Amino acid sequence: xxxxxxxxxxxxxxxxxxxxxxxxxxxxxxxxxxxxxxxxxxxxxxxxxxxxxxxxxxxxxxxxxxxxxxxxxxxxxxxxxxxxxxxxxxxxxxxxxxxxxxxxxxxxxxxxxxxxxxxxxxxxxxxxxxxxxxxxxxxxxxxxxxxxxxxxxxxxx
Length: 157
What we know:
Blueprint: H1 2-13, H2 19-22, E1 44-48, E2 53-61, H3 63-69, E3 76-81, E4 84-85, E5 90-98, E6 101-112, E7 118-129, E8 143-156
Parallel strand pairs: 1-8
Antiparallel strand pairs: 2-6, 3-4, 3-7, 5-6, 7-8
């Protein structure tokens, strides 16, 4: 059960969720949208400076998993920019179908409509209940960091 939750976090981050699952959600672009920067993939990338972009990541949890792992509300995501937390972003919570299973989708969107210049590091933090990790738990619903990934983006002229 624990591996499935982490797998879903990785799949959501890697943009493998069917586009139809998110197509009707305001603010979420088509998954092939070139304006999305993902934390999954190369750890260093280039992107045109002063060009709009966004990042979104999150979780997909089945209702059955919620019974074992605690409420979906214990799962969250936040983003750092050059080591400074950017807050909670714009949460988009819904349900979706993935591999024939209904999931509670919890995504957080961070938009940069004016783009950026220079070189910056984005670090994503996936948080969830300790019981969803492979580590020992004193309290199964204690929220801990489950995954952290970074990408350094050089914004080029």
